[in-house]
């Protein structure tokens, strides 16, 4: 597919087919592999220092190298999962500083894209949004409140020139509705990614089907598509039903390396990197059962080796390039 090297806000290339990769567990990689201290699990603070920028650059480049070797497109997510007002306040960022760093996160990704993208390898820039609260606990926020709360971060991504926004690790249907509405109001494509517990349901007991169908119903199907992240495939494989319309709305997976529950991971003092090859095989099986799942990356505990294993399992050898 020939493309012009430009922004894709009005025509996301991943909507036209093909595998697109994403990165893995940014925060767990920086903490456990690079030995960094991330206050409140916030990676966006690294954008404020030359040393931090170099750490982030090396992190993303490892994944971009995998994508280039396999001839796939890539979705670059900004390191801003914690860059919302509640978490920023804990870190000493006022509203102006928070807006500036969200805008700057997109410029940082644009520099990475400029050095990597080729006409046959599209690279999409996504502003990453996290939940207002803890990604492992039930959110207590209504849709209107969520829309107002997340609008400022979305506006910063629009100003910065992001192609899309992606809300990760959501546990609240209402928060997902609010984010989808806020993005729609600002005319930027949005993706909603839920996380589930070991039973395949959201922490409040809602099923993935309930979550996706409710968001679509309440927003006139505003999200571009849905994803699942921050859970191992063994936690959600059985919750999916081939052929049903709501499953066809799930276009991506960013799974954890570990099969542990969220509660167990919260108590871990050492990284559980799981089995990359087994994870790759599970992605292969998901792709065979659900071909619409073509946005592939990792979450907690994964690094570029896991994404490499996913590529090895999912992509045919002829897809590899020199």
Strand and helix map with partners:
Elements lengths: L19 E2 L4 H8 L16 H21 L2 E5 L7 H6 L4 H22 L6 E7 L13 H18 L3 E7 L2 H13 L4 E5 L13 H12 L5 E5 L3 H4 L13 E6 L6 H6 L8 H14 L5 E4 L5 H11 L8
Parallel strand pairs: 1-2, 1-8, 2-3, 3-4, 4-5, 5-6, 6-7, 7-8
Helix pairs in contact: 2-11, 4-5, 5-6, 6-7, 10-11
Walk me through what this model shows:
The chain has 322 residues and is an alpha/beta fold. The protein has one domain: TIM Barrel. 42% of the residues lie in helices and 13% in strands. The protein is built from eleven helices and eight strands. The chain has helices at residues 26-33, 50-70, 85-90, 95-116, 143-160, 173-185, 208-219, 233-236, 262-267, 276-289, 304-314; strands at 20-21, 73-77, 123-129, 164-170, 190-194, 225-229, 250-255, 295-298. Strands 1-2-3-4-5-6-7-8 form an eight-stranded parallel barrel, surrounded by six helices. Helix 7 (208-219) links the parallel strand 5 and strand 6 (225-229). The two termini are 19 Å apart. Mean pLDDT is 93; it is low at 1-6 and 318-322.
